[in-house]
Design goal:
By secondary structure, the protein is of the alpha+beta class. It folds into 2 domains: about 1-30; about 40-135, Tumour Suppressor Smad4 (Sandwich). It is built from 2 helices and 10 strands. A 6-stranded antiparallel sheet has the order 2-1-10-9-6-7, with no helix packed on it. The chain is extended. The protein starts with a helix and ends with a strand.
Amino acid sequence: MSYQERRHLEKTANLSAELAPVSRAIHASLQKVRPPSDQSHLTLEITDQSFELKDGDIIGRGGTVAAHLFSSHKMVSRKHLIISRDQTGWYVTVLPSVPNVTLMDEGSMRRGLKYAISGQHTLNLAGQCTITLNLIDLSGS
């Protein structure tokens, strides 16, 4: 094994050791996530209107929900966001084909990455349109 290969292995081992506590903390926090109640509802709020969302809904100019409200926003993609739900909760994902910036609570969202939804979140699509996603849990838990 060459000197460079040994150094690379040492650096990799050191990095793994440094990241282990962070990885454990992330894993522990994920264990605390409550599964969504069967009585939880996710709504999209735009221009003083509210629409109930379901797993698989697409938000955008050609989406499955409120598409007519996005038609004047040409920088918003036809298929901009997808909503998903599984046993751990509700999620929003910016589709990989979206060329413009999408912000969630003023932070930039990475394309293709699922973002957990809890409570209320404000999203800005392509700097042109602001929407709110609101998770409502009717079970009282």
